Amino acid sequence: MVTQKDKIRARLKKDYYSDLMVLAATQTNIQDNYMEVIINLSDKFSKILRDNGYIKKLEYNPKEFWNFKGKKTIFNIDGGQASVQIPTSAPFGLRVVNYKVKPGDKSSNREDLISDPYVVTDLFDPNSELFDQSDDDGLADDLKKMQDGTRIIFEAASALRTGLGELDWPKEGKKIPTKNDMIFLHGPMVNPAAGYEVEGEISGKKYPPYSLETYNFLLPHRINAELPEHRDEDPLEKYRKFIPIYCEILKKIKKLDVPVYGCVERPGPAAYGPITKQLMDSMINKRILKNADVYRNSRKPNDPDGMADIIRKFQISDSAFFDYMLNVGEFIDPQEINKQEEHKWPVRKWDYEYWGLGIPKSFSTYLKVSENKKPIRVETMEVRESYMDDLNMVFHSSRLLKSYSFPVGLDIVDKLAKTPDWMKRNIRKNAIMLTLRKAMESGNKRAVAIARKIAVSSDRSFFNRPKGK
Amino acid sequence: MSEENTIGVVVGNTTTDSYSFILTSMAGSKGDLVYTEAEIPASESNKSARNVYVWGRILSINRTNTAFPSEIAQEIAKEQIEIRETLASTDNEYQEAEVEILGQCDQKDTEQEQIYLKPLNYPVMPSAQVRTPDEKLVKKLLSGTSEGEKLIHIGSLISRKDIEINVSASKIVARHMAILAMTGGGKTVATRRIIKGLSDYGYPMLIFDPHGDYLGLYSNRDKLKDENGNPVDVKIFQPALMAKGHDEVVEMMITLFTKFDLSLSPAQTDKFYEFVESNEAKIAFGDPAATGSRRQYDSKDIKEHLKEFETIIRNELEKEDNKTTKRTIGAVLRTVKQLIREIDLMQKTNKQLAKRLKSKDNSFEFENMPNLITDPEDVVRSNQISIFYLGGFSRLLQSMIVSITLETLFKNRASLDDDRIGPFASIIEEAHNFVPGSGEEKKSTPSLLTIRKLLTEGRKFGTGVILISQRPNRLDETTLAQCNSFLILKLVNPRDQGWVQRVMEQMSDQDREALKAFANGQAFISGHAVKFPLQVQVKRDEELETSIMGDEDFINENSEHHKKTSSNIKKRDQNSESISSIAASAKKAKTKL
Prior knowledge:
The complex is a heterodimer. Helices cover 40% and strands 13% of the residues of chain A. Chain A contains 17 helices and 12 strands. Chain A has helices spanning 4-12, 15-27, 34-51, 62-65, 143-163, 200-203, 212-218, 242-255, 274-285, 291-294, 307-313, 318-325, 349-356, 387-399, 408-417, 421-442, 445-456, and strands at 55-57, 74-82, 93-101, 111-119, 168-169, 173-174, 182-186, 260-264, 330-332, 335-337, 362-367, 376-380. In chain A, the strands form 3 sheets. Chain A has an 8-stranded mixed sheet, sandwiched between helices. Residues 199-204 of chain A have low confidence and may be disordered. Chain B is α/β, with parallel strands linked by helices. In chain B, 39% of the residues lie in helices and 20% in strands. Chain B is built from 17 helices and 20 strands. In chain B, the strands form 3 sheets. In chain B, strands 8-7-20-19-18-9-17-16-10-15-11-14 form a 12-stranded mixed sheet. A 6-stranded antiparallel beta barrel of chain B has the order 1-2-5-4-3-6. Chain B is globular, with a radius of gyration of 32 Å. Chain B starts with 5 loop residues before the first strand and ends with a helix. The model of chain B has no long low-confidence stretch (mean pLDDT 85). The chains are: A alpha+beta, B alpha/beta. Chain A binds chain B through residues 62-63, 66-68, 74, 76, 99, 101, 103-106, 108, 110-111, 113, 396-397, 399-404, 407-409, 411-412, 415-416, 422, 426, and chain B through 11-13, 66-67, 69, 71-72, 74-76, 79-82, 84-92, 126.
């Protein structure tokens, strides 16, 4: 019989890992016994998890599963940015795509699509003092953050607006989803918010607030907001910023009838990831593991390393660790994770306690979809009765793209949210020509020289590398 | 010009030759004519720009559903799941059409009777709206012919049945045309349409028909009338190899010897030349220099000349006493007789085939070929279609017949002072046999140079040629390049497609690709006969079709044949059996003796 240890060994023998191991073995002493340690540790940990019911299993049964007859609606949301290589601080595009599908519906209403494009700078309040800051204030450096934050907030708002029935679907009009339906978000359900902190007086990052129009769009339920700050007819500028709005959106999503899940395509590389940590801590609390088996007793230098220490030492991320352990269809019992870690909030304690802790925690799991792909991280804010069924939808819809192993609905919106290459090329060309023309009109030789440089220079890429023998 | 007929928006990079646009689902199809508004630099220096309509033709349409990767298809096929039961998207697609620009016209030009296009010298604007023209506008665009020009109605646009397509009759006959298609592509349908179109104007036509494909015109000749209601006559000629004058007869004789592989030894060759240069031969063949020549230019069937020559040799043979020489003369005589037999056999086969056709349609009247020198108007005259039925003749003889016939008529036409015959069009079926492209075949095809001459001089003398072939890549490129109009029907062979594209100037890659998908009668037409290349559905003249030359039903024919002959064969077999038994017993009786 094939043991879990054999399976782990087999997975580790896959090309990718063996390449890494050769690299590791030739470069560092610490990883000499990588293989042996990983196999033993994964095997041991997987056994503990299985014995204590932390690993659950879904069966792949597509013929029986795909039998909804149009009675369930799945919403898939993703946002895309038009990241054009323009050497100026030109307007930046954002597109949020929402794909609604009713599996098994035979009518023309089976699919519906909303694709909303935005120009990011248009979303902010032009009347705010902070809007016209010069680059000296450091805004330009953090423009990327502002754009990212806007994408995150618009994706979450799209889930909220979907859940509240605010969207006017081209084919079916407005529709409030029920608990039988599902909303999928491409990306984490909850993001660490500290990076998008907007209260300039604390961090010095003076982002302008969103315009009132944008604010009302993001929080269509504002009169009955979860947080009283948002209920004011004329809200303070500081509440029209990332953290207060994001906090409100997530709080409201948590209360929606329809369950919302975030699926993460590329899990973070952090060694000793939050889910492993949460599992270890949880098992210590439940007296399944001894503290010393997880964390080395720092007061006794001769004590052996705990599991957590080994995982850190060997740089094992959550996704890699669970990839070794899980078989196809298996997932980790969802763990409650607090993504708003206090040390990352460079603000007063009150701010952290109110806003940081105000942001709901997420329940995260790893689900192994296919043998050759790392598991997907699936997040939600509340583990409901339908959790197993919902995860089964993630599993089955990911199996349709076996080699990608990601829910097909999200793959669709991901593609649609991307700005096509031809458009990007033309935007770039246009922008460069404008720069060049302005430079020439100015009559300034130096400006023309710079503009010409802009026109011809491009980023270094792999393809420009000189060829070796 | 209404806004309602918008079918898409221009995207991507545009040039003065082409652009792409995103097509509204089901709003247009390949081959459609489209136009878009554009601003181009004005020709006058005091104006900055002028508004024009840029006309184009949809060359190809790509239909993409980026949301449906092939991997899903694999999984649902393997698991036997209905795609619509899953989350996969089935209707999330877009169409991107590629447009070939035909030219531009001023916006006010669309109010005129006809629209004439000028070259575009400035690209269309990305994001411009693409529209589909209404029927009236398309007609104005397509009917671009000079006043009073005679037209032939060829059919309709493949993509828009409401748009009729006409071609210029005078340009076809003056500038020549090639009709190319694989077998079953609709060559005959298209040719019949052109013939019908030309016969509407009573234009004289010669059809060289190796397979009898056009004999149906004879059966249905009562349905052929010119535009004034006068009947159009159809005549079928059984052709012969006509030669006149000593030099021509000798040359033809030598060619035939070579082509039929009838070789003579050096001594026999010397004797042969002695005979052909003799005064008797000169008189017989008609040489003005010969003493006592009967008629200087009497054109006769080569077989008749050969028979006369045979008599001359026979006389010489009788006169000769030397045994060796007698043997040599005997060999020459045998060779000439062999040649006569070969020609005779072909003529018999031709007649046999004609008889066979006649048995199917009793109305067929095969006439002997008239003397083209003396009576060319029997073949070329207004309101007459002359079909030369070439069935049964070898390729060489067919080529010789075509060559001699056309050469004679051309000379007649070219010596305009005589004014015996008017302009005429020659329709040459299986043209690859008459204007072959390969070096080897060229040498043994006398019709090649004749047809080339007709094509080159056709404009001057009105000797238009319509070449028809199902093997385009076997045609002579130089000859075909003289054709100014092309009607290309279905072609599947990539070599044929590539060859056709090389010869024609206006065929795009997409048009070439389309050839293989054409249905019967669908064609790509380009050249002088039309304003710009179009994909058309050729009109079918069902009233001129005949079942005689359709697919032969040999299975039934065999049954019929069996019914008719089996009793005779049986009787003969029985007779033979009884005779052999008698013979056997006779043998025994003899033994007893």
